[in-house]
Amino acid sequence: MNLRQSLLALALTSVALPAVAQEVNVYSHRQPELIQPLVDAFTAETGIKVNVAFVDKGMAERLIAEGTRSPADLVLTVDIARLKQIVDAGVTQPVQSDVLDANVPESMRDANDQWFGLTTRARIVYASKDRVADGEVTTYEDLASDKWKGRICIRSGLNDYNVALVAAMIAHHGEDYTRTWLEGVKGNLARKPEGGDRDQVKAIAAGLCDIGIGNTYYIGEMWEDPEQRPAAETVRIVFPTFEGDGAHVNISGVAMTKSAPNKENALKFMEWLSGDEAQRIYAETNHEFPAKPGVAKSELVASWGELTPDSKSLSEIADLRPAAVKLVEEVNFDG
Ligand code: FE
């Protein structure tokens, strides 16, 4: 290289370097309020700006349509089926990271490094303190038994969370058993499926039903809202199990897009989300179970006792999603 070429090379480097903004772009299925405390803490620590776009529906379709022009670096979402849907659409890339491998237990990340779980939530029973005896709630299978006739409230069977629960039932017992089980649960409902998980708690408080099916963290949200807390105080949290196994859990997680324009910062944010501080924020502000072993649960979540998660793999459950949807429709669960 002669002097002129060297000077030119130097000029090009000095132009290219400072022009890169320190940022990372996130498409989030999760409510912006949930993500904000994490974003603020990460930016304060690293100086990297995080831009969050809330994408309610059609995440995979949007990433496919945007292709290599997509500004998105990361996708944050709940439900293993949604994570897999994005991976199956071919819009993510594998991420090799010793930090992620150390922080996220193997059962909570993809074998091909395409997605990583950040938190766990269990789908459990909200039980009326007044009308449900200790030990009365046992297994998910038992929810179809006659003793619950007219006593159960639940949201739509086609909601993602319920579809995952039905898929887990198929993983344990097969489709025929699960069809009969769904008919049994439907026959035990106090009212047609409606509302969200919190509405089932409110229905129990109003005396419409004795138990409801819902996710753990909604009780945390209601607990912190002065208007909803009285309803939350009328129920106990019970972790039902699959016969001889554990409670149904799902995850929230993260994946890197195939075209991530800010790959290095995206990796930093992913690793940070799996670390102690972010995991503590997830536990305290959203009452989820942290993925990282050893990070403390919130006081409220700890008060519910130990969670033993079901041993069926989340990938298997996600693969059974179409079969689960079919059964829910077949028995006209919501009708
Ligand atoms: Fe939710």
Account of the 3D structure:
There is one protein chain. This protein has 335 residues and is α/β, with parallel strands linked by helices. The chain folds into 2 domains: 22-120 and 250-303, D-Maltodextrin-Binding Protein, domain 2, CATH 3.40.190.10; 122-248 and 311-330, Periplasmic binding protein-like II (D-Maltodextrin-Binding Protein, domain 2). It is 43% helix and 16% strand. The chain has helices at residues 3-16, 32-46, 59-66, 80-88, 98-103, 160-173, 175-188, 197-205, 216-223, 229-232, 263-273, 276-286, 299-302, 314-319, 321-330; strands spanning 23-28, 49-54, 74-78, 92-93, 116-128, 152-153, 211-215, 235-238, 249-257, 289-290. Strands 1, 2, 3, 4, 5, 6, 7, 8, 9 and 10 form a 10-stranded mixed β-sheet that branches. β1 (23-28), α2 and β2 form a beta-alpha-beta unit. α6 (160-173) crosses α7 (175-188). The chain is globular. The protein binds fe (iii) ion.
